[in-house]
Write a structure and sequence with these properties.
single chain, Glutaredoxin, elongated
């Protein structure tokens, strides 16, 4: 339902929205009426488009073909990609479904990005997709932090999260004039990095770093990767989607995350001592 809730924001950002599944048109029509869906739901009953995009979920078909001969490995795949309880009956009903994910497509019909999950109960939020593409949906509350070397804007892509959502923490960093900080791959210096201490119900994923540039320090004949223009760091987060986590989240109103942004800054003359900037985020929790 997040797509419908975010529809106006997406349209104002210049996006159109459509969803595709293997369900029959009458099923999709009933679903639209029941949930107030106002964007197109496309029926692909033969899974032709799903196959063309290479996202057919073959785990269900494998389960049907293997029958009672299926082993533990296939059972794990069923839990991961089809049904959390590992039911072969549910797997059979799911034959023909796609792996859940999101494509962004330009006006010429070219796929410009795609976002897919490793667990069928997880979904990347619309806001976190947009921040990975360099934008955002709607307005967000942000913290402004300044140091001797940087100006930092820190915010969460989604102020409210639920079980199974893949979201992101965002840091917009602007080095002060004449300053640079070291990017991943720099040797002999403290590269910029974000460490997060998260509660057990939150999984911290990889950090998305932007491309760096090479800085040439002539006195040492040294070339190192740096950031000296404004840049953005995007930290992936997943809220646990297991039944046990869903039950625990029903009793929780907020999730607090603490972290530290570590970096080393230099100008054309001086390399300053490494710095650790403390950071906190508080995410509201909903059950739907």
């Amino acid at each position: 339902m997040e797509l419908q809730r975010r529809l106006a924001d997406l349209k104002s950002a210049g996006f159109g929205v459509a969803a595709i599944s293997y369900d029959r048109p009458e099923i999709l029509a009933a679903f639209s009426r029941q949930h107030g869906i106002t964007f197109p739901l496309l029926s692909d009953t033969a899974s032709a488009t799903i196959r063309a995009y290479g996202i057919l979920n073959t785990v269900a078909s494998d389960a049907i073909a293997a029958g009672d001969a299926a082993g533990p490995s296939l059972d794990e795949d069923i839990k991961k990609f089809v049904a959390v309880n590992g039911s072969r009956k549910v797997a059979a009903l799911a034959a023909g479904t796609p792996f859940p994910g999101t494509f962004t497509i330009d006006r010429e019909g070219r796929v410009t990005s795609r976002h897919f999950e490793e667990f069928y109960r997880e979904r990347t939020t619309i806001a976190s997709i947009l921040v990975r593409l360099g934008g955002q949906v709607g307005t967000v509350a942000a913290k402004q932090i300044t140091t001797d070397h940087l100006a930092i804007t820190a915010y969460a892509a989604d102020a409210t999260v639920a079980a199974g959502q893949r979201t992101a923490l965002v840091l917009r960093v602007t080095p002060r004039p004449g300053m640079h900080v070291y990017a991943p791959g720099a040797t002999g210096y403290r590269s910029i990095a974000l460490t997060i201490t998260a509660p057990p119900l939150v999984r911290v994923g990889p950090m998305q770093f932007p491309a760096s540039e090479i800085y040439f320090f002539e006195p040492l004949n040294e070339r190192v990767p740096v950031y000296q223009k404004p840049f953005e760091l995007v930290q992936d987060l997943v809220i646990d989607a297991t039944p046990q986590a869903e039950a625990a989240l029903r009793d929780i109103k907020t999730l607090k995350l603490e972290g530290s942004l570590e970096y080393q800054a230099c100008d054309d003359r001086i390399c300053f001592n490494p710095v650790a900037v403390p950071l906190t985020w508080t995410l509201n929790v909903t059950s739907h």
